[in-house]
Amino acid sequence: MKKQMAYSILFAVIAASFGVYIFVEMPHERYVSSIYVFLFKLMPFIFASISISLLDRNFIRSLNLHFVAVIFCFLIFFAVYVPKMFFDVMVGEGKNVYYLTLIIVPFIILSLSLAYRIGGGSSGNTLRLSFALLLIMLSGIEDLAFFIVNTHEIGAFNPVPEVWHWVSHIEVRLGHPPSKYEVYAFIIGHFALAAFVLFYPFRSVSRLKPIFGVQEA
């Protein structure tokens, strides 16, 4: 397991390096300017997902860090994101809430994957879970849900717009602002891909396990 844990730490360092660079050097904006920026900003999540999937849960448990890790993740959400979000709404007129949410949602996915891994999930299934949830996050379901779960009158957003100009994470992949029907297809496609990631055997990928020292199923 030492080899597996060493790779886990290595990928964690790579993920942190990408994350720090993006946070410090790149503008804090809600819109994705290009497909290259979009892909680059996924790097911290991808490497962190691999790191978590390779985590040696027995080593973590032997140091009694399993509860600490989960509580730490909760505190990042509850004692960092929540107060910053409240402060921004009350003082900053909510200008940074969207950007803060763009950061916290991938973190929540990684927290769920970490809890799953520590709780007994295999390396392969942990990675499946992370990437499936990423696909759901990128599907646009929350933008559609905005119109479904909010029943009050909200001006221009009621009814559902024919063209969605604000979903830049979809626009950079399609090459144009999507129509509502393209968004519907986009969401369905991403959920289908998430199901594929969760249930397809990926036998060729499983052959990589010995390289990283993975021994469990």
Q: Can you walk through the features of this model?
A:
Helices cover 71% and strands 0% of the residues. It contains 12 helices and no strands. Helix 1 packs antiparallel against helix 3 (43-53) and helix 3 (43-53) runs antiparallel to helix 7. The protein has one domain (2-212). The mean pLDDT is 90.
Write the layout of secondary structure elements.
Layout: H1 2-25, H2 35-40, H3 43-53, H4 57-62, H5 66-90, H6 97-118, H7 123-137, H8 141-149, H9 168-174, H10 180-199, H11 203-206, H12 209-212
Helix pairs in contact: 1-3, 3-6, 3-7, 5-6, 6-7, 7-10
Instruction: Please state roughly what percent of the residues sit in beta strands, choosing from under 5%, 5-15%, 15-25%, 25-35%, 35-45% or over 45%.
Output: under 5%
Overall mean pLDDT stands at: 90
Computed over alpha carbons, the radius of gyration is: 19 Å
Low-confidence stretches: none
Beginning-to-end CA distance, first to last residue:
13 Å
| Helical fraction | over 70%
Query: Structural class given helices, strands, pairing?
Result: mainly alpha
- Tally the helices: what do you get? 12
Please give the largest β-sheet: none
How many strand elements?
A: 0
The helix/strand order is HHHHHHHHHHHH
Give the overall shape. globular
- How many domain units? 1
